Amino acid sequence: MAAQRLEGKVALITGSDSGIGQATAIEFAKEGADVVVHYLHDADGAEKTRASVTAEGRKAIVVRADVREEAQVAALFDEAVDAFGSIDILMNNAGVDASGTPVAELSTDVWDRAIRTNVYGPFFCCRRFAQLRLAAGGKGKIINVSSVHADNPNPGGSDYDCSKGAVRMLTRTLALELAPHNINVNSLAPGMVLTPFNQPAIDDPQLLEEQVQSIPLKRAAQPAEIAKLAVFLASSDADYVTGASYVMDGGLMINLGQGA
């Protein structure tokens, strides 16, 4: 039996049709939260999340929106408020992965896709959430999903790496701006997680084994492991935590930081 640390709270989780977002929606529900399930493409996945939330005895609605579009984000929040009256927790999880294209060959359209999804999306959502919470007198939690690649670059990953670095700084800036109103803003920076982003490795055990060799724990994370940290950051246990970036990478970053 979970501790019900989120009892009476409403959480909006972008990209909660799969992976970390889906796992977090389920963990939030176990802790007592109602959930706004957001998706763009995978309606079936979003319905699966909704069913998992309601199976825990909590309420859930499913809303489709393209977080790259300001008007659609506004409609997403309006629908959430109409259904639940308020939003207490925002988790910006929706994102696109690196294109794998070197900068010299990277098209503006591909660059824009990453920046608009991974940076504009969280910006639009954070801005609307902050407006709602300030109007309600303050308090609330924002969790932005960043990445180890906010600090650790990959060749062919400039679109993703730059977007996640921006998310980290958006988090830190918002933390300063919203601290006087008791709105906590933190980020999660996962390493390798077994989500659709890493589907090739999920489908190929040999590839997975090769890819985890640089990770000291010699394995990738399960989405639920990331979700459990998100529960902490969304709860009153983290009331004195703001502007932080929590790395969950099995030791990858310190391993890469060793000398030649």
What can you see in these coordinates?
With 260 residues, this protein is α/β, with parallel strands linked by helices. It has a single domain, classed as Rossmann fold. The protein has nine helices and seven strands. The chain has helices at residues 19-30, 43-55, 70-84, 108-135, 158-178, 199-203, 205-211, 223-234, 252-256; strands at residues 10-13, 34-39, 60-64, 89-92, 140-145, 183-190, 245-248. A seven-stranded parallel beta sheet has the order 3-2-1-4-5-6-7, with helices on both faces. Strand 2, helix 2 (43-55) and strand 3 form a beta-alpha-beta unit. Helix 1 (19-30) runs parallel beside helix 2 and helix 1 packs across helix 8 (223-234). The N and C termini lie far apart (47 Å). The relative contact order is 0.14.
Mean model confidence by pLDDT: 96
Principal-axes geometry comes out as: globular
Using the coordinates shown, work out and report the CATH topology.
Answer: Rossmann fold
Through-space gap between termini: 47 Å
CATH superfamily: NAD(P)-binding Rossmann-like Domain
- SS class: alpha/beta
Percent range of helical residues = 40-55%
The CATH architecture term is 3-Layer(aba) Sandwich
> Which CATH top level class fits?
Alpha Beta
Strand order of the largest sheet: 3-2-1-4-5-6-7
Largest sheet: 7 strands, parallel
**How much of the polypeptide forms β-strand, as a percent range?**
5-15%
Give the strand tally.
Answer: 7
